[in-house]
Amino acid sequence: MSNSVVLHQWEISPFCQKVSRMLKFKGIPFSTINYNGVLGAKAPMLSKVGKLPVLDIQGQRIQDSTQIARYLDSAFPDLPLLYPQDPLEKAYVELWEDWADELLYFYEVHYRVNDAQAFKLAVAKAIEGRPYHETLLVKPLLKTTLTLQLKMQGLGRIPNGTIDAEFIRHLERIDIVLEQTGWLVGKNKTIADIAVGSQLLEIVRTHQSFRTVILSYANISQWLEKL
Question: What is the pTM of this model?
Fold first, then answer.
């Protein structure tokens, strides 16, 4: 199976890391192709959506992290399940996953754009293998693209202090939920943990100030260690 499963990824994308963690959770061997730098121009040709992650598996090509998660449970039901079988728990899991993908993600983008060190790391990946004259254009283009994305979503129109306060409220809620069983839903690890954790872990990896804040919550810190 290892030769037939390939994850096409943008290395620092939390959605690509989400898929990587799904595959590891289910115990499916895989290889990765990183579309950093100049290879990024080839990513839109992988799927109709033109975005990463894309998974090649068993002769199929699947795009979108949630679609990949559903496929993995359907194709490999005998391996650990990402989604619980209990209907109520599954509903809660899907709500957490959707929340992580559609809201928490934009906090990750905000901190990537507005923190000098985090943005420097993103630019470094984007310019890998590019000729020097192209690297001069990548930084302002990436900054403009991500800033526009934030403004269109709405977070980019809110003062930074307000965003920080709201993000901390989200952390407090997550920490309270984790106190019950150590996982977001039920007594076992699910796609909810992988989806939410992947967003937070990318902030931990790149943003020095909020790394300290996130890891100051004991339940979150222990949970991220398990992820």
Answer: 0.92
